[in-house]
Amino acid sequence: LRPIHRLLSCPGTVAADARKEEQSSGSAETGSEDRTPKKRFSEVQKERREQAQRSVLIHFPNKISEKKFLKYLSQHGPINNHFFYESFGLYAVVEFCQKESVASLQSVTRTPSMGTEAAIPFRSRCFHLKLKNASNQTSEQSCITRSNQSPPSSKKLFELLCDAESIDDQLNTLLKEFQLTEENTKLRYFTCSLIEDIAAAYFPDCAVRPFGSSVNGFGKLGCDLDMFLDLDEIGKFSDHKTLGNFLMEFQVKNVPSERIATQKILSVIGECLDHFGPGCVGVQKILNARCPLVRFSHQASGFQCDLTTNNRIALKSSELLYIYGALDSRVRALVFSIRCWARAHSLTSSIPGAWITNFSLTMMVIFFLQKRSPPILPTLDYLKSLADAEDKCIIEGHNCTFVCDLNRIKPSGNTETLELLLKEFFEYFGNFAFNKNSINIRQGKEQNKPEPSPLHIQNPFETSLNISKNVSQSQLQKFVDLARESAWILHQEVNGHPSPSSKLWGLAALLLPSVAKNVSQTKRKKKKPASERVKNLLESIKSSSTENSTNTNGT
Ligand code: GTP
Ligand code: MG
């Protein structure tokens, strides 16, 4: 049993929803079969943030009785749920039912005396639990189930993929193994709330919100934690309290621009994390970047964190991706596989550079799914047309309006299998006219490229920007070559000629680094003829797949 089944939270909570989703994912072929009402992004964020604020993190010795530990903590109030995990020692995340319990626990907690070193007496929600008398506790130790926070090893992944029953099953398996677990998601929101505690020392009404793949449904176990310090709520409600003829304003320090304000705030918060934040290590202030940030590692959770501020558009992008990912169960399965495929062939990297990013790859999959017939995903303009007054959202002059209630979006009637979609994705982008066309998810159709970058993907909200401006011609070519090669491998398999590497079939064969080697080796030997060969093969696949696709659709 996965530890998720041991959670004690009430029905109707995010945890219960995640359980339902987990039970339905994998079995359902298309999202249209899942009729459970889906929560809005803002509801999920609010609920998870509140859970995180009621939670504490406790590091403790291995020899401990779970029962006694919980009994000891429940002196401070009832516990809603808890889980254990390993990361440089054993940790527990404990969520109390009430926020007051955290203060109660803090009030009986002492600051350690350090001997030769000195402790900074910062009272966070991270604790060490020590045994007063180790010998009489060990006899009752129970076997503590640890929740896994890491992705599967390549060996395990290949085994699982090869044991799958079909390519569709392989894609769903990969999703199930790599997607963020309930516990990992809780740990992400919890880590943000710890940083919020530090920032709140200066800005009491601030919020630190996770964004990016931690919340948009496309996060893989082990992905970074993007968080943003939201200062917008500060002072929002004071308008209503102003009585009489006077208007009261705070005296503040003025700086020449919003960017400088951002840099100053992040610089101070960065210093605080470095000096006071328990377990915040390797703090780097990258304040001259286009989007200034503070990067650090949070030791206890094991997350690599990027803290930004003034980043509302990125949060809105996360909400848009969350909606796209939740509309149809094929979307996340396809995106995860494409992201894994790109990583396996070093098309993406954790180091910034001329590579395609996961964000751009996700946009490419969304665009491809908008182009299916009938479309699997609606265009952003259509989502905008469904918006009502409360969905209206203008950020820094950019119209970021779209419908926020997922349940108002009609499910797609398209029943194509994941196997077909994967193959067609590679064919589509293996033949895409990148030299003249731009990818545009707002309209769901190609546009003429407004500038000469090799890869042009329009930023959905800041429409004059290209989200893949960094991608070089050679990286794009590598993507195209690999896409063609992968389409060819899948085509061979579909036609009963499995890849020569015997047991590795379907998605497993595509994730093999040897595919990349084949491409680069053939390229090195005879550059032009090799790509010509693949192109010709694709042409022949295309003509035969038009006939095949009718069959696949019909099943
Ligand atoms: P991972 O690779 O799993 O971390 O995916 P991610 O989606 O979290 O990407 P990343 O950490 O690079 O960026 C976090 C978020 O910032 C993304 O989800 C986007 O919302 C936003 N973002 C990233 N790159 C760009 C970009 O080039 N342009 C814009 N407008 N937003 C970006
Ligand atoms: Mg990220």
Automatic annotation (TrEMBL):
Matching InterPro entries: MTPAP-like_central, NT_sf, PAP_assoc, RL
UniProt keywords, alphabetically: Magnesium, Metal-binding, Transferase
Chain residue ranges for the region called Disordered: 15-52, 540-555
Keyword Magnesium: yes
Biased composition (Basic and acidic residues): 32-52
Annotated Gene Ontology cellular component terms: mitochondrion; nucleoplasm
Pfam families in the record: MTPAP-like_central, PAP_assoc, RL
Co-factor requirement: Mg(2+); Mn(2+)
Domain PAP-associated: 421-464
PANTHER family hit by this protein: POLY A POLYMERASE CID PAP -RELATED, POLY(A) RNA POLYMERASE, MITOCHONDRIAL
Protein name per its UniProtKB record: Mitochondrial poly(A) polymerase
